[in-house]
Design brief:
Elements (H helix, E strand, L loop, with lengths): L1 H19 L4 E9 L4 E2 L1 H7 L6 E13 L2 E2 L4 E8 L11 E8 L4 H14 L7 E7 L1 E6 L2 E6 L3 E6 L12 E2 L8 E13 L8 E2 L3 E10 L1
Parallel strand pairs: 6-7
Antiparallel strand pairs: 1-3, 1-14, 2-11, 3-4, 3-5, 5-6, 8-9, 9-10, 10-12, 12-13, 12-14
Length: 216
């Protein structure tokens, strides 16, 4: 009887641990910057504080809740602008603008902003604007397309052999968001045309994007 009790306790603990490992929210993630993120160290060092000061990122919630609010099927995007290269030790002042899914309710919009800021606290610490717009996202393998109506766009594709320059390329920068699993892809389109950050950029055809998933 004593042995059976111990076994039951071990099984219960295992089931409890397994349940705690299940994320409360998860989905797709995409990011593009204005410098190569898949590159060799020598090329990356040449870009420091010259390029890579801007980025667009987005979280596409597939299922789950945050702060007690169901966010399944909703999206949130952010544009980030720094004085120095993002991911470098000398980033300087960082400002951001957040766009929440137009389909979200007021409560869901607040939760989407909180989710993005929780996953990227450093880069979304100073938010200068929050607005709601239509956001669409589709992905098939390495090919992904993000559209934030009137504000931003990212389109990616898989690398080809001709994209390697030094044959020592790797993911040089981590994603701007925590709790992600990403891989680098080629940027076909990367554009920000919103006015909230007092700046616009277009930086296509670069080795500067990441696609993957997030879970928390």
């Amino acid at each position: 009887m004593k042995t059976a009790t111990i076994v039951a306790m071990v099984l219960a603990a295992g089931l409890s641990g397994a349940a705690s490992d299940v994320p409360s929210i998860q989905g797709q993630y995409i990011e593009a910057r204005t410098c190569d993120v898949w590159t060799g160290p020598c090329f990356a060092n040449g870009d420091m504080n010259v390029k890579g000061k801007q980025a667009v990122a987005a979280w596409i919630v597939e299922k789950g809740a945050f702060l007690g609010t169901d966010l399944s099927g909703l999206k949130v995007a952010a544009a980030v602008l720094a004085e120095g290269t993002l991911g470098h030790t000398d980033e300087g002042e960082i400002r951001s603008a957040i766009v929440v899914d137009e389909k979200a309710s007021p409560e869901q919009r607040k939760a989407l902003v909180a989710l993005a800021r929780t996953l990227s606290p450093k880069y979304l610490a100073r938010v200068v604007a929050v607005e709601a717009r239509p956001i669409s996202y589709e992905r098939k393998g390495h090919e992904a397309r993000l559209a934030v109506e009137g504000v931003a766009a990212i389109r990616t594709a898989a690398f080809c052999p001709c994209d390697a320059i030094c044959c020592n390329e790797e993911q040089f920068y981590p994603a701007l968001s925590a709790s992600t699993r990403v891989e680098c892809v080629k940027t076909i389109e990367h554009e920000y045309k919103g006015g909230a950050l007092d700046g616009r950029w277009s930086d296509p055809n670069r080795r500067s994007a990441m696609v993957g998933t997030f879970a928390r």
